[in-house]
Design goal:
With about 180 residues, the chain is mostly helical. The radius of gyration is 19 Å and the shape is globular. It starts with a strand and ends with a helix. A hairpin with a 5-residue loop joins strand 1 and strand 2. Strands 1-2 form a two-stranded antiparallel sheet. Helix content is about 65%, strand content about 5%.
């Protein structure tokens, strides 16, 4: 486990355990990235998750049962916050511009599919995108998503069903699949 040094008000140094292990940090990064947070902002997002976990401990709150799932949900919420603050249409325009290169790469089909999925995710309502990312990218079970978001399992299933159906329709409409 990583160790970080933290300064107290008196100036002495104390060793503090990093609340996220390497696997949890990778998962948080993945959830943030899939939620639309740009690469440059991922370290800040990971730090925000760490900070929230440390603040929770500092307040004396009980540690989450599954830190990895808790961190993924917090990361998903951070991604939604970022999405609300920034309109991701600028990023989509940049992606489209990069696809218009004169030479066709061998990965063009993969790039087109990735772009279509990203655009489809962008068009989903925040609540549907959140459960879709938590279920299929963070690999949380429906029950875990429901517990972490504080909503009934049926609501999670309904949002997942609607999101998958909308994303599938978008991909068929764009003739990607």
């Amino acid at each position: 486990m990583l160790r970080r040094k933290a300064r107290r008000a008196q100036g002495d140094v104390q060793e503090v355990d990093d609340p996220l292990d390497a696997a949890q940090e990778r998962r948080v990064r993945a959830v943030l990235a899939l939620g639309g947070v740009p690469q440059a902002d991922l370290p800040d997002g990971v730090q925000q998750v760490r900070l929230r976990l440390l603040e929770r401990a500092a307040k004396g709150d009980e540690a989450p049962r599954d830190v990895s799932a808790w961190a993924a949900v917090v990361a998903s919420n951070l991604a939604m916050d970022w999405h609300r603050a920034k309109r991701r249409q600028e990023r989509i325009g940049e992606r489209l511009a990069s696809l218009r290169q004169p030479e066709h790469s061998a990965d063009e089909d993969s790039n087109v599919l990735s772009l279509a999925v990203a655009q489809g995710l962008d068009e989903l309502p925040d609540s549907q995108r959140q459960v879709l990312v938590l279920r299929f990218y963070a690999d949380l079970p429906v029950r875990g998503i429901a517990e972490e978001l504080g909503i009934p399992e049926g609501t999670v299933k309904s949002r997942l069903h609607t999101a998958v159906r909308a994303l599938r329709a978008r991909l068929h409409e764009d003739e990607v699949v």
